[in-house]
Amino acid sequence: MAKENISLLIIFISLSSIFYPALSRRPSATNITWWCSKTPHPEPCKYFLSRSHHRYTFKHRSDFRKIIVQVAIEQAHKAHDQVMEFGTNCENKHQKAAWSDCVKLYANTVLQLNRTLQGLKSDRSCTDFDAQTWLSTALTNIRTCQSGYMELNVSDFITPVMSNNLSQLISNSLAVNGVLLKRENVTYTNGFPSWLSGHERNLLESSSLEARANLVVATDGSGNYRTIQAAINAAARRRGSGRFIIHVKRGVYRENIEVGLNNNNIMLVGEGMRNTIITSGQSVGSGSTTYSSATAGIDGLHFMGRDITFQNTAGPLKGQAVALRSASDLSVFYRCAFQGYQDTLMVHSQRQFYKKCYIYGTIDFIFGNAAVVFQNCIIFVRKPLKGQANVITAQGRNDPFQNTAISIHSSRVLPANDLKPVVRNFKTYLGRPWQQYSRTVILKTYIDGFVSPLGWSTWSPGNNFALDTLFYGEYENYGPGSSTRHRVKWRGFHVITSPKVASQFTVGSLIAGRSWLPATASALMAMKLSVFLLFISLISFFAPALSSVASNGVDYWCSKTPHPEPCKYFMQQNSKHFAVPKQKSEFRRMAMSLALDRALTAQNHNKWLGSKCRNHKEKVAWADCLKLYQDTINQLNHTLDSNTKCTDFDAQTWLSTALTNLETCRAGFVELGVPDYVLPLMSNNVTKLISNTLALRNASTVPETYKGGFPSWVKPGDRKLLQTSPVRPNLVVAQDGSGNYRTIKAALDAAAKRTGSGRFVIHVKRGVYKENLEIGNKMKNIMLVGDGLRYTIITGSRSVGGGFTTFNSATVAVTGDGFIARGITFRNTAGPQNHQAVALRAGSDLSVFYQCGFEGYQDTLYVHSQRQFYKECYIYGTVDFIFGNAAVVLQNCMIYARRPMDKQKNVVTAQGRTDPNQNTGISIHNSRVMAAPDLVPVLSKFKTFLGRPWKEYSRTVYMQTYLDSLVDPAGWLEWSGNFALNTLFYGEYKNIGPAASTSGRVKWRGYRVITSATEASKFTVGSFITGNSWLPATGVPFRSGL
């Protein structure tokens, strides 16, 4: 290579000579223009800094660095919100697929920027190289988003509205941080990174990992799970964040797996790359983006994979089809294989190491923008389509300050078996420039004779794109195709002759492997070369990802929650209002206050969204959400109120209700077929914050019970009301005019105006009352007393088919606490053809229904939330006709399955627990499950099941109940495929009758035949709804235990 060819080293030195002295000079504290003029993109820098609500002063270039990262974060949040809102404009599946990637990628960009700023602000800060990695990832995410639209030919849909300001602001951050990088010659012999515990150093080569696995996956059912994703999901719910080993037994696993952002330190261990195979067939040709086509997508930090093959079987005709996409920082793949054709291995971002791996493909089959080293790997080039050329790498560096590259070291480049017979028909190149600053180096590697003498290819024929700005290098390679005599003559190509230059691309330098890889026992072959570091290797690259914080810091407490990122973010945004907690109880209260604050913000935002509704259905679902968010605010206030004397079990109930409300809001849009517009604009941060509070307040022990005890909110005189005849009412309703009012609603309106909140009894005389009623949050301690369930009937006919949400279809809806009903039938006459149609929706805490009837078809009885008790009641329906997310016990009840529509199945329950810490479930005790008269003649034509999992942690138990012959031997039904089968809790205890045998029941992990009276007692009145502490005061007869 001619001396006049300026290497990247000289470019960097030149940039440094201009940039570094300029930043060293100290201007006046407020001279934004001066500071911004030293960045690659001064205009957006000046614009956003001058318009920020913060007042900035710059005493040092490190101050300026923090500030421009902060500004980038602010714009990233706005960009993410804009992307979320833009999803409503998607007109087809291609636009929707690309948009979905962008939502995820922009969220990851926000995370990387936050991670960088937190590290720079910390007293025990991250290294400058850590920051450069995370900033590089943030910028790569944005480029990946844009690529998705181009791949699916819908770039005209998004490009005109997506601003590049965020890219420019991140690029500025990279440039400033790049100048601040310190030059160090640091190596660590057998060193350990602080983020990796000592016992993990042998994990990758240990021969006895199976015995040390936390979970086992086996297709034959001999492990904890049958699918890898189920095990990964279970790992995500674990407490703590230490190394978590999942042993995947031999077998072909046909699934797409994803290890999410917060699921860190996962290790997948197979039984050999020939024996344990994860495979799928998604591709750009089938409508996925390259990003989302991955068989395995890895985002959680510190991932390790061993002895597994990742495969994409889409084939060469389907275009881009990824086997593995990795964006896991500090990740290792050892003795793994990656099989595909175009775009097999997407080394998307962050720092990665591949050892003794096999990679198969045709076009750009090692690509992305990570800082990645392949060592002792075999790269097999397969037979491409006719007219195609093979290209091994396509590195995606799009900013000169990104510290990313592909380094292939001590490996072998060979033709695969299908290419060997026709090897002369196809050209093969080492790489081509996917982005402007593409960087790839091949060191001490065997290159077989089928590689073109040119070595490298342009991105497209006759195109000079990036040929001057890329950096492609070769150092001491060998084999028939290693000669550099006829290599390309581009300005950016280098035959490396200096060990000092080559050393910057070794394990020791490019990914600072000596500082962390010895702890994984990957048998490194880091070259013993002196370390002359270019700007990609200026400090120890893999220092701790995030410094540990003191045990009383916010980060420490948030890391103990299921959703640490929103916890950290909003705590820091409200740091003036929250002192650093010293005890868990303080943090728990802070977390609830934070959830309440965000719920109030969300409610104000939701009110504004009403003007965005485009049609009646959207307006209906939106109206439900206003009501539900308001109730969530009430529940959080109730839990926080220092004047409220409550147990942990009380608090868990109210927090469970708060979370259920948000899920119900979402469901309304889905039910009415309008989930694509207003719903995406509703943030899920409130959901995650409430989930955190549930985890912190988890009442894991059986609550205390009190024989004959009274709750403070019930007067002693109430205990006999339910059995006393006649009842002395406050008001009487009669259609014939013989009472105070002719309609129940009029009586309820009068009750709402009463002074005080004591027990208020309304006697509803016999008659059919055609009205829809709502007994709201403020109407506490209402009691409706009828003349018997055959004589006093409240009926309506709202339904989803009629344009209502399930939530709003209820004939009677009750949310006021302490509600009691006796001797009344609640009915919905919409019929099975109108689908979901609720007779009663109950969200009243400590409510009782005694000798009542509930008649409908699909979704008859909506036990929405809170604690409820049903005694000697009759419930009629077809599909999911007892459903919701209350803590509810039905005792001595008659449950009648009716005749459904043709081809339908009857399902008695559909319990809706969405969080493992919710203390909710359906308990059916000492009752009877029977066929209704209209089902009896056609019983053989329709199957009936005890329940199916509406939500992921669905929980239902039948105890000492008579199950008639209509119940299918399997007992339970899937909701959709394998959804929730491992995470649900379905149990049966000492049931009787023709269908009570459990020998033919489902074999799901979450189903169990309960044999222990101790376990069964957890679902009785005394334990599950703490009935002994409040039911005696109502006078309803009940059985506390089994």
From TrEMBL:
Keyword Ribonucleoprotein attributed: no
GO BP, sorted A to Z: cell wall modification; pectin catabolic process
Any GO molecular function: pectinesterase activity
Pathway stated in the Swiss-Prot or TrEMBL entry: Glycan metabolism; pectin degradation; 2-dehydro-3-deoxy-D-gluconate from pectin: step 1/5
Membrane-spanning ranges: 358-381, 531-550
Keywords of this entry: Aspartyl esterase, Hydrolase, Membrane, Signal, Transmembrane, Transmembrane helix
Signal peptide: 1-24
Superkingdom classification of source: Eukaryota
SMART domains: PMEI
Pectinesterase inhibitor domain location: 27-176, 549-696
Gene3D superfamilies: Invertase/pectin methylesterase inhibitor family protein, Single-stranded right-handed beta-helix, Pectin lyase-like
Positions annotated as active site in the UniProt record: 364, 880
InterPro entries noted in UniProt: Invertase/methylesterase_inhib (IPR035513), Pectin_lyas_fold (IPR012334), Pectin_lyase_fold/virulence (IPR011050), Pectinesterase_Asp_AS (IPR033131), Pectinesterase_cat (IPR000070), Pectinesterase_inhib_dom (IPR006501), Pectinesterase_Tyr_AS (IPR018040)
Keyword Signal: yes
PANTHER family in the record: PECTINESTERASE
Similarity comment: family membership: In the N-terminal section; belongs to the PMEI family. In the C-terminal section; belongs to the pectinesterase family.
Protein name listed in UniProt: Pectinesterase inhibitor domain-containing protein
Gene source species: Citrus unshiu
